[in-house]
Write a structure and sequence with these properties.
single chain; alpha+beta; 1 helix
Length: 156
């Protein structure tokens, strides 16, 4: 024997739902609630700006690394050219050298080395990136002026 429905007014004689009756509270409808939507929007409002700032910092760091590498190439190239041209007798020199689309101002300074009878030549290259000034330097040791380097190289 069947038990009587708890809400007889909602069912007709055949057991089907009565027209115009509300659905039962126990049954969930598909979709999101307003609280779920607001919570997801709040989470997005926090995560998106943080992620964008992280990407911006990473982009700036990458650009700074590229510019520093280019400035170091310029410094090393100048150091090699000054030594090859025997232009080591001057104590200071300066100029601008282009690498790609950027121009890099440089200065050269030669001074006596404190450890031995040698000279220390330093080429410093500067550049500006996003309002900040950066510099890189390349240094080498040279025989003191008026002396010649003698000796033998070890066999490899």
């Amino acid at each position: 024997m069947k038990s009587a429905p708890s809400h007889p007014s909602r069912r007709d004689a055949a057991g089907g739902p009565v027209a115009g009756a509300r659905p039962r509270r126990g049954r969930r409808r598909a979709g999101f609630t307003l609280v779920e939507i607001l919570a997801s929007l709040l989470m997005m409002a926090i995560v998106v700006p943080v992620a964008l700032e992280g990407m911006s910092i990473a982009s700036r760091a990458g650009l700074l690394g590229q510019r520093k590498a280019a400035a170091m190439r310029v410094a090393e190239r100048l150091l090699e050219e000054l030594i090859a041209e025997a232009n080591t007798q001057q104590t200071t020199d300066s100029g601008t050298l282009a690498d790609g689309e950027f121009a890099y101002p440089w200065t050269m300074r030669t001074e006596n080395w404190s450890e031995d009878a040698m000279q220390q030549m330093t080429v410093t290259v500067t550049f500006t990136l996003q309002g900040n000034r950066y510099e890189v330097s390349a240094t080498t040791l040279l025989p003191a002026s008026g002396t010649t380097a003698t000796g033998t190289l070890p066999a490899l």
